[in-house]
Each structure stands twice: as C-alpha cells, then as structure tokens.
Input
Amino acid sequence: MASENTGEPKLLRTLLRDVILAAAVTGRADPAPLRRPWPFFLRWTRYIGVGRLPYGVVVNLFGLALTVGLIAGTVSLLNTETARRGIEVSESTELLIAVAVVAPLALRDRHPLGAWRMAFAATLLFDVGDWLTVPYVPAGAFAAIVCLYTVAVRCSRDVTLGVGILSFAGVWIKDAESAPGASVLLLLPLVVGYAVRVRQTSRRELAEQERRHLDAEAVLTERQRIARELHDVVAHHMSMIAIQAEAAPYKVESVPEVTRRDLAEIRATALDALTEMRRILGVLRSEDGAETAPQPSLDRLEELVGNARGAGLRVSTRLKGDLAGLPQGVGLSAFRILQEALSNAMRHAPGSRVDIEVAREDALVWLGVVNGPSGEGQVPTPSPPGGGHGLVGMRERAAALGGELTAGPTSEGGFAVTATLPVSAT
Output
C-alpha cells in the first residue's frame, strides 16, 4: 500500500509538470518553415501564380488578412449589439476586445502555443454575455478552435493533452450552461489535429527508414564498386610480382639454387594469393559486368575536365605536387571523387564556374571542388528517383583509404567538396 501511495503523488507531479505546466508555460511546438511543400489539394493554385510562392508565406499572409477582416467584423458586431441593447461601450474598448480575441489567428502558424495561450487568456478575461446571446465572441471562438487544431498538429501528445485539459476547464469555469456544447467544439479540433499529427509522424518515420535503407544500399553498392576496382589494382601488382619472380633467374647466368627456390616460393605465394583474392572478391562482379578496362587515375584529369567544359561548366584547375607518382588506389579514388563532384555540379549548378584544386603534400593528397550558383538562364536537373547518393559514395571512397571528405553549400550559393586522402594508407 505504501508503494501505491507514493506512486500517486509522483504521477500527479508528472501530470502537472509535463502536461499542465508544459501547456501553460514551458512547452514548445514543432517549427513550421516558411518554405514547405504545398498540400496536394492546393497545387492547382500554381496555374494562377499563387502556388509558385512559398506555402508558409501564403499561409501567414492569408492569416493576417483574415485576422484584419475578423477584427473589423467583430468591432461592427459589438457596436451593433451594444447599441441595440442600449449599452454604453467606447469604440476603443470594442477594438481592444476584438484585437485580443482574434489576433491569435495571425500568430498560430508561427507560434501555435503562444497563440493558444493568448486566445485562452482573452476568452477568460472578456465576458460579452451581456452584449451577445453567448459569452464568447464568435470570431474569437473561431480563432481559438483554429489554434487548438494547430497545437494538436504541431505539439507533442503531452502538451496537446495539457492544452485540452486547460481549455475544457476554462469553458466550464466561464459558463457552465454553454460548457457542454463548447466542450464538443473543443474536442473536435483536438482529435482531428492529433490524428493528422500521428499520420504525419508515421509518414516521416517511414520516409526516414526508406532514406536510411537507400543510404545503406548506396554504401554497399559503392563498397562493391570500390572492391572491384581495387581488386583490379591489387591483381595487377600481384601478377607483376609473380612474373618478375619467374623471370628473375633467367636474367642472371649463375643464380644459386637457394635463390631459385626462394624466387619460386615467392612466385607460388603470389599466385596463391592472387587466386584466393579472386575467389573472395570475384563474387562482387556480375556475370555480364566484369570490368576489364584499365582503371582511371589522375592522369585522365584533363579528359574529365574537358567533358565538364563540353557540358557547359567553366572549369579551372590548379595542380600541385607529384601527382603522377600516386599509388593506383589513391589515384583511382581521387579520380572518382572529382568525377562525382563535377557530375553534381553539372546537374545542380549548370553553367556555373568550378574551381578544382589537387595538391600532394608529404603523405596526403588534398582535393577541392568548389562550384558557384547556376549560370544565367540555366535550370538545375533534379536527382532521379532513388538517386542522390553521390556524397555517400564519395565519403565511402575517402573512408576506405583512411581519409576524410566534407561537403556543403557555400555562402555564395554554390557547393564545395573537399577531401584528404592518405598516400601511405595504400
């Protein structure tokens, strides 16, 4: 019994702190960016020009215009009803009441909880039962219901529960006679809004799971491609070891028998290692996709830049250090990273200026590809369905060599990719 009794105060404290206090003071709503997609049923507005504007901006402008109209209508209603009943009320008082109960409507998209708190306080503070047939200003009731719906869509379950409890308590305290009907009006936006939030949350979670799945698939695909390419590089070196070990005894007339046996052992070991590597990594090759062409390196950089210039990019290059002496694995990864960065620039910033810098300093190769915004009159090409994983592949290539890659937008509206590749890792 003692444990049950101690559990009740704890539950009560949790209810007061995480539900009631969060709704009244500490709670926060999910942000609503001005740039967000238009709802499907409103996309027809693109044909009249409105739908080409950011949806959040249109929502806020519409809310502001509606608020001004409802304030004017509320002042007119209060003025008419008080005059009909012979009640003396100043125009400034009528305007104050109208602004207090309707203004939350203009704030509810950017600050839904703050808007509801204003509407809650104004509804409890101003009683117009002597002026109208109900104790609520009609436009104020409409604004409060819209704020409740927005809170339910944009706030957590606990905060929404606290808002509902306080709202129900407020209508019963204000006027018990109209409270049953008012409670039904309050319950409807809360239930509908919460259902919308659950649906949106589920869709976001599914989209996030799909994105993680596609990223993991892209990582696996890129790792397989890296493995195939490095297999070709390593196989070439192992073959050269075997060939040189076999040919070495014939280059010198008198080779000790011990040396011949050692060289034969080296050749046999190299061939065994080559066979084992092919057995392990050969499964990564598709039956019809074996790559037999020589793997590219930075010696084909000019060819890569020429293709980019032919596609409309204005490319400048700056090379520093001994790039011709790079190990094949490093040169291959550097080429692929530059290739992907240029492809991204072609798609997302056509006609832009691109600066490429490749430098070798001691045991590191540094790569930099910076592009500006799209050229005048150029339209970026959207990524194909299931695409958009080029950055994942570039990071995998850098990580495979023990290096690092960073990518992100620039202050000028372009995009920058930088990578460091250790030479000694290969």
